[in-house]
Write a structure and sequence with these properties.
Strand content: under 5%
Radius of gyration: 20 Å
Largest sheet: none
Distance between the termini: 72 Å
Number of strands: 0
Number of helices: 10
Order of helices and strands: HHHHHHHHHH
Shape: elongated
Helix content: over 70%
Length: 222
């Protein structure tokens, strides 16, 4: 029994080392330019087939990296929503999108790699659904619809879609900028997680409440 437990602990340690190495390499160089062999070496594994053995395909590896973060973000989001109670304005809603991601990144210390990993994967059409839906959605589709009906009932559907994309892009990219600045030792007065959370929340609230200038899309003539 003791031997089995030791073996399980060794396997778990190996998996964590691979996840750490892959997350860093994917963040720095992109998913498709990094080989399983490079990941195995960076993880200190003599067997260059260790990645495939423990995780299967590269997509499976990306999913495993994302899940160990998105699971924590979901827990933080549930706690924040429970503590904050009912939303009273659009800014409350914006904060529920921003704060869980920022709080998780801040808890990881410096340097972190998840924001840059997230950006690399989000830019890949074949992979972005793995991280975007779990890590950045603060509400279920029905909750989102209810919130929009409550606070922004006059927004056209096509504008809602566009602003959701804009909000997601702001969160992803500003997390990248802050993570990079902290990793490079930038002064805390320039970029830090607390200020990023506050400024992002303000910006996303303003984005949702901005006036609508364009005309609704019209059907194309046959």
């Amino acid at each position: 029994m003791a031997g089995r437990r030791v073996r399980e602990e060794q396997v778990e340690a190996t998996r964590e080392a691979i996840l750490d190495a892959a997350e860093r390499l994917f963040a720095e160089y992109g998913v498709h330019t990094v080989s399983n062999r490079q990941i195995s070496i960076a993880a200190g594994q003599g067997n260059t087939g260790a990645v495939g053995y423990h995780f299967g395909t590269k997509t499976d590896l990306v999913r495993a990296i994302a899940r160990r973060h998105t699971a924590v973000i979901a827990e933080i989001r549930a706690r924040i929503l429970a503590e904050s109670g009912e939303f009273t304005c659009v800014r409350d809603w914006a904060a529920s999108s921003v704060r869980p991601v920022i709080e998780h990144l801040a808890s990881l210390g410096t340097p972190t790699w998840f924001a840059r990993f997230n950006a690399q994967v989000s830019a890949d059409p074949a992979l972005f659904q793995i991280v975007v839906e779990d890590s950045l959605m603060s509400s279920s589709p029905q909750q989102l619809r209810d919130l929009l009906d409550r606070f922004l009932p006059d927004l056209p559907p096509e504008v809602i879609t566009m602003r959701m994309l804009m909000a997601r892009h702001l969160i992803v990219q500003m997390c990248v900028e802050t993570e990079r600045a902290l990793a490079e030792g930038a002064p805390a007065t320039r970029l830090n997680w607390d200020d990023t959370a506050t400024d992002l929340t303000d910006a996303i609230a303003a984005l949702w409440e901005a006036p609508v200038s364009r005309h609704p899309a019209r059907p194309r003539p046959a």
